[in-house]
Amino acid sequence: MECRITSTKRRLQRGMSLVELMVALTIGSISMTALAALTFYTARSFAALTNYVDLDKKSRDALDRMTQMVRQSDGLLDFDSHSVTFSYDNGAQSLTYSYDPNTRELTQTLGTTKRTLLTECDYLKFEVFKRNPMNGSYDQYPASLDTDGAKIIQVSWLCSRTILGKTMNTESVQSAKIVIRKQ
């Protein structure tokens, strides 16, 4: 009688078959592709959100600064769709807000001091409204070319940035009506 003990050790030492190797590589490749796509999507979403928050903060800061200065101005001197000029400090200085579509910047000029309030601004428009001629009514009347009786300045703008060549989800839109209080 011959007794042999078969060892399972040899079976564990064998290599993987070609089919097993191909299946493992396919599963690994699909997993890595899904992980790379998820990472790319997350990074792009984070960049878009960061850009939006930064644009929104700069827009709000510019609007706050503009509102504060316009409310303290003495009155409107001149305006068009891309710039407004106010009398400031009892007529001693002029305050100008101007938008340049070529550089995409909104600048504030007080006397001789120039300050950039907004960059990367695709669209900006100023509109001027006069006082209401009837008491007790809140209707607004667009101003013509004269500045007499101008009371409200409406400003609207759109700022955007690109992420990998696209401007999707990175736009900041602001619009406000600012009342000249010293009149």
What does this structure look like?
This protein is of the alpha+beta class. Helices cover 33% and strands 35% of the residues. The strands form two sheets. It has a five-stranded antiparallel sheet, with helices on one face. The protein is rod-shaped and about 120 Å long.
List the helices and strands and how they pair.
Blueprint: H1 9-13, H2 18-72, E1 75-80, E2 83-88, E3 93-100, E4 105-110, E5 113-118, E6 121-130, E7 141-142, E8 150-160, E9 171-179
Antiparallel strand pairs: 1-2, 2-3, 3-4, 4-5, 6-7, 6-8, 8-9
Class from helix and strand fractions: alpha+beta
pLDDT averaged residue by residue? 84
Tell me the span between the first and last alpha carbons.
120 Å
What form results from the Cα inertia axes? Answer: rod-shaped
Q: State the total count of DSSP E strands.
A: 9
- The total count of helices amounts to 2
Helix content: 25-40%
Number of domains: 1
Strand content: 25-35%
Strand order of the largest sheet: 1-2-3-4-5
Helix and strand succession? HHEEEEEEEEE
User: In angstroms, what is the radius of gyration?
Assistant: 32 Å
Largest sheet: 5 strands, antiparallel
**Could you name the ranges where pLDDT drops below 50 across 5 or more consecutive residues?**
none
Can you summarize this structure?
The protein is of the alpha+beta class and 183 residues long. It is 33% helix and 35% strand. The mean pLDDT is 84.
Q: Which labels suit this protein?
A:
four-stranded antiparallel beta sheet, 183 residues, 2 helices, alpha+beta
